[in-house]
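Observation: inputs received (chain + succinic acid).
Thought: call the complex predictor directly.
Action: predict_structure
Action Input:
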Amino acid sequence: MPSGQVSYKQIEVEPLTPTIGALVSGVDLTQPVDDALLSEIHTAWMAHLVLFFRAQPMSPDQHLAFGRRFGELHIHPAAPYAQDTPELMVIHTDKDSFRNNGERWHSDVSADEEPPMGSLLHIHQVPSRGGDTSWSNMYAAYEALSPTMQTLLDPLTALHASDYSGQYGDHQPQRESPQANHPVVRTHPVTKQKVLFVNEVFTRRINELSREESRAVLDFLFDHVKNINFQCRFQWEADSVALWDNRCTQHMAVWDYYPESRSGIRVTIRGDRPF
Ligand code: SIN
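Observation:
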């Protein structure tokens, strides 16, 4: 959770809101990130959940290298990729698009058995206005629930499933659309705090409830995570970079710029099985 109390030697960290998001300066992501710098970025990341870096003209190789400083990279089951490299997921919307990637609230590929820990998005081309992305803090979403609701949700599990058929035109999927059962409330492996872990893109049902109960509780939770008090909203510029933690945030990309184009590359960091 944001603390604001940490002092950094190499980077400057300016929170966007008291709840989530911070702008980081004093870093050149076209250069290798050494252990001391990585440690500061990681501390800020755990405190603010999503970090933003401006004016970072990274090459795809530099982007991959920065992502790999956090762990092995994840490959999206179905999305197109750049430069014959499946780890370089293409994020692109233009006048011919019939959908915008990530336009509903979600945590990336939560239907994987081991959903991605983090995502690192480098936007190359922005529309003249619009195309923002919002993130919501899932620690705050859990903490805002009544103790009675927390007690109900704590032991439950939910089925997450994906269906990417038709979503990416004629691009060949990497593998079958995944599905997995995850705790409704997971514990963040670094901060050890509880997080609400259901999202409207991937979560299909709560296993221990009847179909009707599951629908009612999920509808409530999908609405609850969108509370504006849990959110920050970022206005991209060309060469802005965002690093978010999929274990404790959800995000959505606003498609308000049709027929203009918006383009970037996402590198995604593998995670572990939620507990
Ligand atoms: C995504 O990774 O869900 C897309 C986010 C964005 O395009 O801002």
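Thought: report the result.
Final Answer: Helices lie at 35-48, 60-68, 138-143, 147-153, 211-224. Residues 167 and 215 are 25 Å apart (CA to CA).
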